[in-house]
Design goal:
This protein is an all-alpha fold and 276 residues long. The protein has one domain. It contains 11 helices and no strands. 35% of the residues are buried.
């Protein structure tokens, strides 16, 4: 008499264990093959256009952005998370180090992210669409955040003791010179796109690269970026945390749309790497 209920419970247990979120997109809109290059270029262009819209709205956001930055700094002080000033002053004492960090901050997030995208497109076409969708989704969420919740970086907080290392050390592309300020959103600190992109790049290398040293570099890259954004007074710890949360949301959106994980499991990746 108890066999039927037991069988029903077993079936329900298997259904729960096998449940996966999504997919929301029909099968024809979630293929596994490599997309056309022109499609990718168009998507990238649209993202840059969206960024331009947020950049053009900067003047109207200045007062609110500074107010939010002061509120974040005060909250971090209350929670004893305010390590930014210590890191900023410690790095500034070593000239070559802080100048190197300035260039790191200004260039590597573009170079490495584009490089990983190209590598993914060429070497891992089966994973490209899913992994790229997570990156683009997170970036779009960040742009929405910039548009509706502009936040100033720590270096803009007058009287708090932060050193604007790019200006002080006259690094090429100084904000004060106007050449960078005119092309970038100076109130786009929350969430940190540097953390979004570096963590995405690091995860992609850690999961998909076959060489151990490349996977190790993938793990180290977002940690180094976190240090740099604090040392150069461009982001708060809260901005980094928001960046990590935004990337997580990007991967969740990708999973809901496609119904599949962006990366293979580490065990499967290890087996693939061990093959001759």
């Amino acid at each position: 008499m108890s066999a039927a209920p037991d069988a029903t419970q077993a079936t329900l247990g298997e259904a729960r264990a096998g449940w996966r979120p999504g997919p929301l997109l029909p099968a024809r809109l979630r293929p596994l093959d490599r997309p056309r290059l022109w499609t990718e270029l168009v998507c990238t262009g649209l993202l840059y256009w969206a960024y331009t819209l947020t950049r053009n709205a900067v003047p109207a956001h200045r007062t609110a952005a500074l107010h939010r930055a002061h509120a974040i700094w005060h909250a971090e002080q209350e929670l004893h998370l305010n390590i930014e000033l210590t890191v900023n002053h410690a790095a500034d004492r070593v000239g070559w180090l802080i100048v190197g960090m300035n260039y790191y901050y200004a260039t590597l997030h573009f170079i490495i992210t584009i490089g990983v995208l190209v590598w993914l497109y060429v070497r891992h076409p089966g994973h490209y669409r899913s992994v790229r969708t997570a990156l683009y989704s997170a970036t779009l969420l960040a742009l929405i955040g910039f548009a509706f919740c502009a936040t100033a970086p720590p270096r803009f907080l007058a009287g708090q003791g932060f050193i604007d290392t790019v200006v002080v050390h006259h690094t090429w592309g100084s904000w004060a010179s106007g050449d960078v300020a005119s092309l970038s959103n100076q109130y786009a600190a929350m969430p940190s796109v540097h953390i979004i992109w570096s963590t995405w790049s690091g995860l992609t290398l850690a999961f998909l690269a076959r060489r151990t040293w490349v996977r190790v570099l993938g793990v180290c890259y977002p940690l180094a970026t976190f240090t740099v954004i604090l040392a150069t007074a461009n982001h708060f710890v809260a901005d980094a945390a928001a960046g990590a949360a935004t990337l997580t949301a990007g991967f969740l959106i990708q999973r809901l749309l496609t119904g599949r994980a962006a990366y293979p499991t580490l065990r499967r990746n290890a087996l693939t790497a061990s093959r001759p």
